[in-house]
Amino acid sequence: MKKKTVKDVALKGKRVLLRADLNVPLSDGGVEDDTRIRESLPTIKYILDEGGRLIIMSHLGRPKGEVKPELSLAPVAERLGELLGQEVVMAPDCVGAEVKALVDQLTDGQAILLENTRFHAGESKNDPAFVAQLAELGDILVNDAFGTAHRAHASNVGLAEVLGGSVAGFLMEKEIEYLTRATESPKHPYVIVLGGAKVSTKIGVVDNLLKLADNILMGGLMANVYLSAAGHKVGKSKIEPDLLESARRGLSQDLDGKIKLPVDHIAAEELSADAKGEYFPQLDLPEEVMALDIGPRTVESYKSILADAQTIFWNGPLGVFEYESFSGGTRAIATAIAESSATTIAGGGETVAAINKFGLARNFDHISTGGGASLEFLEGKELPGITSISEKE
Ligand code: ADP
Ligand code: MG
Question: Which ligand 1 atom sits closest to the C-alpha of 320?
Fold first, then answer.
């Protein structure tokens, strides 16, 4: 790899700021899925073993520049401490005098976790004043947050500029190496499975993915948007007009029919844990229901396309897999990908949660910690969080 890594710098006695991605799903005040914490462990352990004074930064959720106690990283500090077998001090904030005092007390090999960086509006705005406050806390920046690499924020990009560059952690290194190999010369047929609910951030990449892939299999809310754009009735699903516009553009560019859409649905009148899914064997839905999973005929047709694939990239669940009634499509497609002999890559917070829920993680060649970031990487875009990592001399 051309980028410097944490192995290329001396860490002993240094105040090492680590931008990790500890944006884990929480439930009942605890960590629901600790994949991202576990993935960050190799870098964290290495820095501590080398005698660095470790100051960990992360965001959690989307507090939009305000303190939201339910998005505190405190449960993460606790779980991280358990996994490490040593205390991880939880800071009350990520900048300021009190935090500075706690950092000054660190000795070699000790760790502190700063509070959610997105409690400050300066994080997402890459505000120089906020960057300067963060910079007071450390000497070196290690960037292990691939999940935010597509964003130029204070804790990954601004801080790198002020501290004279950054180095990659092991997770970042693995992501760059794997995704580079998979995208430089992917084997064909190359099939992309695209689902989930964050349609506005994903729809922009479809135009470019059409140039790379032989097929794009759509599911989730994403599919509803494309079905609606193609003139079908999607019932109750709310779809914003500007998304329809992008979807229509994608469909009009798709002269070879690479985009595949569901042909049947599991739908319900409302989205809740005890909602019973009803099977609709047709494309168009009545007004009073919304599609919450792909149907069995869609599953079969997607499986037959996946069966011939040599490279598969998956981002976004195909239905509301969190609820048993709407998990069938995601489970079936996840299993088909896991059993495939193709090179298989998956990315995205909920996608990874689904893979773990079905116990299939070991069957994937690479599980990316970034959904949006891995999509933009595949697309061939420059990611500011990666650009800001120093090149090897
Ligand atoms: P990822 O984190 O993997 O990138 P997203 O954040 O885009 O995926 O979306 C994940 C969410 O999409 C899941 O929580 C799932 O419940 C939801 N979802 C999937 N299908 C539908 C659907 N048809 N309608 C509404 N939400 C859906
Ligand atoms: Mg998500």
Answer: 16
DSSP state of 284: S
Q: Rounded to 5 degrees, what are φ and ψ at 347? A: -155, 155
**What letter does residue 155 receive in the DSSP assignment?**
I
Q: How far apart are CA 334 and CA 353, in angstroms?
A: 11
Catalytic residues: 36, 198, 349, 372
Assign 181 a pLDDT band (cuts: 50, 70, 90). confident
DSSP 117: G
For CA atoms 11, 16, 21, 27, the dihedral sign is positive
What separation in angstroms does the CA of 52 have from each of 49, 102, 142? Answer: 7, 15, 11
CA of 266 to the centre of ligand 1 (A): 15
pTM exceeding 0.70:
yes
Q: What is the DSSP string of 323-358?
A: SGGG-HHHHHHHHHHHH-SSEEEEESHHHHHHHHHT
DSSP state of 230: T
* Ligand 1 nearest-atom number relative to CA 319: 20
CA distance 119 to 99: 14
Sign of CA dihedral 253, 254, 259, 261: positive
The pair of structure tokens assigned to 265 is: 């649905």
Residue 365 token pair:
């060649």
pLDDT band of residue 124 (cuts 50, 70, 90) is: very high
Give 198 Cα–ligand 2 centroid separation in angstroms. 7
Domains and CATH numbers, the chain: 6-170 (3.40.50.1260), 178-378 (3.40.50.1260)
- Euclidean distance between CA atoms 292 and 324, whole angstroms: 11
